[in-house]
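User: Last request for today: this protein with heme C, please.
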Amino acid sequence: MLLGKKFIVTIGLLSSVIFISTTAMKQGADEVKTFKNLKVLPKNISEKQLDAVMDSWKLSLGVQCGFCHSRNEETKKMDWALDGKPEKEMARQMYRMTTNINKKYFKAGKDSIGMIMEMGVNCNMCHKGGAHPEVKAPEPMRRGLRPQGPPAAQQPATPPAQ
Ligand code: HEC
Ligand code: HEC
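Assistant: Here's the final one, the structure of the complex with heme C:
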């Protein structure tokens, strides 16, 4: 009776070990693809995760992949690793900026592959589906109205420069 129970427990453990190792292999397969020219995204990013990042950039800016990527003129095929357009480098700069803001001002932590989480800002927050977010004054100021606040005379004078 006792032996029988132990046997069942062992079989149970064994099958879960097999289950875990096949799942690990499947995850491993997802990681196999290595990208050639990553300078800001983690090198261990999986294909699925990279696709998700690219889709979110594409949608945030309201563009197609070719807005940042270019094709190899010899093969006439898209070469994702190529740095052929200034927009791609600009996107890297934007990613660095966004990451630094989240890390420094929103104390954002890292996710499982070491990417800083989008705690405070992300691409869509400024881009809102467009490639060129504008620097605009608030609406009342644009209509030529004075902002709310004390009249100029009551505002503290700027101290003279030392
Ligand atoms: C806003 C610009 C932008 C858009 C839009 C964009 N990408 Fe990217 N993509 C980049 C940047 C920047 C990198 C490099 C990231 C780095 O340096 O870590 C990159 C890297 C990649 C890579 C890795 C290439 C390698 O081997 O180094 C692939 C694949 C890729 N993008 C596919 C796509 C696809 C597919 C789309 C459309 C769904 C897309 N990208 C849309 C900017 C963009
Ligand atoms: C704090 C606001 C802000 C955030 C966050 C932001 N951007 Fe931008 N982005 C701008 C501004 C402003 C411009 C300049 C627009 C222009 O030149 O007309 C710009 C320009 C760009 C351009 C160049 C467009 C062109 O035609 O040259 C790319 C590419 C870009 N951003 C990608 C991104 C990506 C990808 C992210 C997220 C990782 C991001 N941005 C996050 C404000 C932001």
